[in-house]
Amino acid sequence: MQQTNGRNTSPSEPLLAVDGVTLQYATRQQIVTATHRVSFDMYEHDRFVLLGPSGCGKSTLLKSIGGFLSPVEGEIRLKGQRIARPGPDRMIVFQEFDQLLPWQTVLQNVVFPMRTAGRFARGEREDRARAAIAKVGLGKFVDAYPHTLSGGMKQRVAIARALAMEPAVLLMDEPFAALDALTRRRMQEELLDLWAEIRFSMIFVTHSIEEAILLASRIVVMTPHPGQIIAELDATRFAHDQSGSDEFVSFHKQINGMLFGQQKVANG
């Protein structure tokens, strides 16, 4: 595996360590091996993107980090502690728009996980929810119901709900994939702006090379099924890139070649 992340002598311990993780799940016909001995370290404030073709196990890996699936080999540690179950220190934003409770307002949806997890004092939860909603640009919609919101607005509410919990790591499973191209681009920019303000730690799953380059500080490139890591790449310099620079185009071509097995190019 190529490692070009510049962290060989990091002064800090990893926030998240994925150590030799093999994941399997059962279908009606067979046991499927989703990933094979995957290892990587994620550090605080990373924008860490898992990039690979459909079926390479990246979403399954995200679910395992979330605590919903136990490895059959290896382990995942958060702040040095093995992950064995879901917890409020890991919040997931999914692709589907319908992850909000339709009978609750935007404010109530954001408060809900804090209340069910018993997180923060009762009087503090609404203040935190309002602050998170304002950060995603929906301060005027606190009393709106999900059916009145666009797809992009619903995803903003889901992000606000996750961030209000102050998780150690925010897990995002292709959250913009179902949006139209213009809304998706706007949401990518808004996510980068939000990260610049709050500096949260994020693992983002995508099969879009362009999205990975735009959003990541580091990219893990995965092989087709079963997923293995073929490279870790530094993408920090491309944040907010409009996809037109020669360097961006060259980097895109390199990753495309790696994904399709045409070449293995180190990211200098």
UniProtKB/TrEMBL annotation:
Molecular function via GO: ATP binding; ATP hydrolysis activity
Matches recorded under Pfam families: ABC_tran
InterPro entries linked to this entry: AAA+_ATPase (IPR003593), ABC_transporter-like_ATP-bd (IPR003439), ABC_transporter-like_CS (IPR017871), ABC_transporter_ATP-bind (IPR050166), P-loop_NTPase (IPR027417)
UniProt cross-references to PROSITE patterns, sorted A to Z: ABC_TRANSPORTER_1, ABC_TRANSPORTER_2
Keywords: ATP-binding, Nucleotide-binding, Plasmid, Transport
PANTHER family (UniProt xref): ABC TRANSPORTER ATP-BINDING PROTEIN (PTHR42788:SF10), TAURINE IMPORT ATP-BINDING PROTEIN-RELATED (PTHR42788)
Domain ABC transporter: 16-251
Annotated protein name in UniProt: ABC transporter ATP-binding protein
SMART domains: AAA
Origin superkingdom: Bacteria
Annotated family: Belongs to the ABC transporter superfamily.
